[in-house]
Amino acid sequence: MPDMDGMKEAKQYHTDIPQTTERFFLKGSNSLDWGMKNRLARIFNPQSGRTVMLAIDHGYFQGPTTGLERIDVNILPIVPYADTLMLTRGILRSIVPPTTQKPIVLRVSGGTSILKELSNEEIAVDIEESIRLNVCAMAVQVFIGAEFERQSIINMTKMVDIGSRYGIPTLAVTAVGKDMARDARYFRLATRICAELGAHYIKTYYVEKDFETVCACCPVPIVMAGGTKIPELDALTMAYNAVQQGASGVDMGRNIFQADSPIAMLQAVRAVVHDNEKPQKALDLYHTLKNQS
Ligand code: R5P
């Protein structure tokens, strides 16, 4: 029997202090459920409101991309410097140690290869698998304007519905077909369609002109895709411009793992994204860290 003496006096009800009601830091995400918010707050840093996702999912349609031939050798050492890891279940299970504390964004659409029409994707991973793998979000490719546009949009809306049952957010990844114009007009269309249909955040490419309009009219966070390898200063400038113009971070692959020093590049990108470091200063940091390694 616990000692009841003094119990009433010891309690502190703080009747004069109103309970704190915290506003969620991510754009357009305030009305989401606790589990969704908790997962998003693991992907996006609540202090900066941004994320540096490391994308290594390329193999799901193009096989062993340059830099990803041996993920155990080339990628695992750089994972600690990323905020989030975006990959397939095959690589997660076979290579990534389950002791990792990194939030996982799991690629759940697939079914095509670079040898065929890429937009002909289906949902390739059950929701039970995402739950089993304890992921923080599920990534679905959406091909606006492509041959299988409708199918890819429905793939996404299905994952939004199923993920919402279990508190797992859906990342819509806007894919651009070879013959489509990569301009702000296209990306406003593509990102807005994904957001209107329920995507919790959206990955899209950077465009030099009017990227801020893409971010402004998308009601949920945007993360910038990296694209093909370009010189380090150009990649850092692109990331800098994207976050300054409204992106909530980046999801970069080749410009990190194909750099001469991926660890240095990832840290330089972090400086740009989380600390608003200017591109030239971030490049200096890249060279310093590269020379130290
Ligand atoms: C491509 O479909 C994948 O989603 C990649 O994750 C994406 O392209 C980002 O990687 P990168 O920065 O190499 O373009």
Strand content: 5-15%
Strand-pairing-aware structural class: alpha/beta
| Major beta-sheet overview | 8 strands, parallel, barrel
Q: Based on Cα principal axes, name the global outline.
A: globular
Name the bound molecules.
ribose-5-phosphate
Biggest sheet: strands side by side, in what order? 1-2-3-6-7-8-9-10
In terms of quaternary structure, what is this?
single chain
Beta-strand segment tally: 10
Q: For the terminal residues, how far apart are their CA atoms?
A: 62 Å
Contiguous runs where pLDDT drops below 50 for at least 5 residues: none
Q: If you average the pLDDT, what whole number results?
A: 95
Residues in helix, %? 40-55%
Number of helices: 13
Radius of gyration: 21 Å
Structure explained in plain terms:
The protein has 293 residues and is an alpha/beta fold. Helix content is 40%, strand content 14%. The chain is built from 13 helices and ten strands. Strands 1-2-3-6-7-8-9-10 form an eight-stranded parallel beta barrel, surrounded by six helices. Strand 6 (137-142), helix 7 (149-166) and strand 7 form a beta-alpha-beta unit. Helix 10 runs parallel beside helix 12, helix 10 packs across helix 13 and helix 12 (262-275) packs antiparallel against helix 13. The longest helix has 18 residues, at 149-166. The model has no long low-confidence stretch (mean pLDDT 95). Ribose-5-phosphate binds at residues 55, 57-58, 86, 173, 225-227, 251-255.
